[in-house]
Amino acid sequence: MIKMIDAMYKRHTVRKYLDKNLPDSFIDVINERIEENNQKYLLNMKLITKDSFAIPLFFRLFLCKGVKNYIILCGNHAKDLEERIGYAACDLMLYAQTLGLNTWFISGTYNKFHVHKKVKKSQVLGILVIGFGMNNGKPHKEKRTPLEVSNYMENDTPEWFKNGVEATLYAPTALNRQEYKIVGNGNMVKIDMGDGMYREIDKGIIKYHFELGAGKENFEWEK
Q1: Per-residue DSSP letters for 120-154?
Q2: Which pLDDT does position 132 carry in this prediction?
């Protein structure tokens, strides 16, 4: 099993999957990881296997293939639910990568009626497709630079800040726009998000990546 930080660099979105079931041993450890995240971040996420109907027919015909396992990203309605979902989903994406699996985070184009029936009392914010990809995906060609997405307020930028910012450039943001700014001042860090429907989910994902790259022990999030 590779480390989470190595998984961060290897992970790419995959939309086509082999017709191969998840082994029981994988299902067990994925469910354990989901439950850990549910307990820690007060969520109700759930793994669904052998179900191809979470993806609308049009997308199954023309965009993706073999999708039949997914994690429902959901929780009780709250102001910060989207950020918590983004953070926890990122943990699950990278954990899946350490197992040799591939993932696809879908925020909008899934069969909402079908998926919502499986977690009736929760607010669903998307699904995380998981499985054995036909390939490992490709990195995005138009990745922004660290200077475009960050600003450190003092003269000497510490290595932990540079490493954290670099890690965020591998985060899967909505429409791959990378519309955020990370600002550092001493050991305090904040993230300013751009406009967009999924900005709070993106914020959670970016936070996870920054922490993984920078090391949680090196800084604090500005309130």
Answers
A1: TTSEEEEEEEEE-BSS-----S-PPPHHHHEEESS
A2: 98
The pair phi, psi for residue 73, each rounded to 5°, is: -95, 105
Q: CATH no. for residue 210?
A: 3.40.109.30
Contacts of 82 (CB under 8 A, 6+ apart): 125, 198, 200, 201, 203, 204
What's the confidence (pLDDT) of residue 61? 83
User: pTM for this structure?
Assistant: 0.95
Which secondary-structure segment (H or E) carries 185? strand 180-185
DSSP state of 64: -
* Domain region containing 59: 4-131
Same domain, 100 and 155: no
Other Cβ atoms less than 10 A from the Cβ of 21: the count is: 14
- Does 136 map to a domain? no
